[in-house]
Amino acid sequence: RRVIEFEQVTLEYPATRTLALDNLTVKIGKGEFVYLVGHSGAGKSSFMNLILKRALPTRGEVRVAGQPLSHYRGRRTPLLRRRMGTVFQDNLLLGHLNAYDNVAFALRVIGVPQREWPGRVSAALRTVGLEHKTHALPMQLSLGEQQRVAIARAIVSDPPLLLADEPTGNLDPDHSREVLRVLQGVHLRGTTVVVATHARDLVETYRSRTLTLRRGKLVRDEHLGGYAL
Ligand code: ADP
Ligand code: ADP
């Protein structure tokens, strides 16, 4: 089953007449772990933004879970966001809330009954290896740990799809590997994971399908990865 499908998708920013994505066709199936690599400006964030419906294609169609994005309109818009968890370079944890409350916040937003929070938040913190930091505030955590809390927040709602855009962008190599290991763990539990990155060593440490963008074009799609721009 397809989780994400791009069919001849072009995204042009009219203001700057930039062709951010140029006639992209690609399918990502359920349970895959996919890297999206490319130099800065290649179109990685544009790809993510289309899936999140933060941008609309100029031409072509994007489908999520078999449905064209136009299906997720009006009252159905929140359904789209519930199908995916997101992790970005700047994880934007709430500084005045501890790890538990930052993760629980995601459940509050989607209206999960409060009695379910403790079990689900503990399970998510366990998945990222931070059950012992439940009561720590973000400033008491390393950047890598903060990013793992952000991953726990993204997966606590059990989304079928996890999107990570430069999740190790601010991290040193050790913390980056830690975060990657956590993403692998999420993948091994059955979640489809898409990671946009230009961290070569990561892509080479845990090899998996790798899509390479160059100036908006998909120039490589390789099953066991490897990073070459
Ligand atoms: P940015 O996105 O920060 O503008 P790039 O994506 O071009 O930069 O590259 C990030 C870093 O990785 C740079 O230091 C660059 O030299 C290095 N790099 C990128 N691609 C390759 C490659 N194919 N071989 C070796 N080094 C690379
Ligand atoms: P990446 O994430 O790989 O760095 P982006 O998807 O952010 O690449 O950018 C692709 C191209 O689109 C770049 O040339 C960038 O300058 C341009 N771009 C991105 N966002 C906008 C925007 N909001 N308006 C105009 N041009 C944009």
UniProtKB/TrEMBL annotation:
Biological process (GO) annotations held by this record are: cell division
Q: Which UniProt keywords apply?
A: ATP-binding, Cell cycle, Cell division, Cell membrane, Membrane, Nucleotide-binding
Where does this protein chiefly localize?
A: membrane
**Molecular-function annotations in GO:** ATP binding; ATP hydrolysis activity; transmembrane transporter activity
Q: Which GO terms describe its cellular component?
A: plasma membrane
Q: Which intervals hold domain ABC transporter?
A: 4-229
Provide the protein's localization.
Cell membrane
Membrane as a keyword of this entry, yes or no, is yes
Task: State the annotated membrane topology for this chain.
Answer: Peripheral membrane protein
Protein purpose: Part of the ABC transporter FtsEX involved in cellular division.
Similarity-based family: Belongs to the ABC transporter superfamily.
Assembly, per entry: Homodimer. Forms a membrane-associated complex with FtsX.
Please give the name of this protein.
Cell division ATP-binding protein FtsE
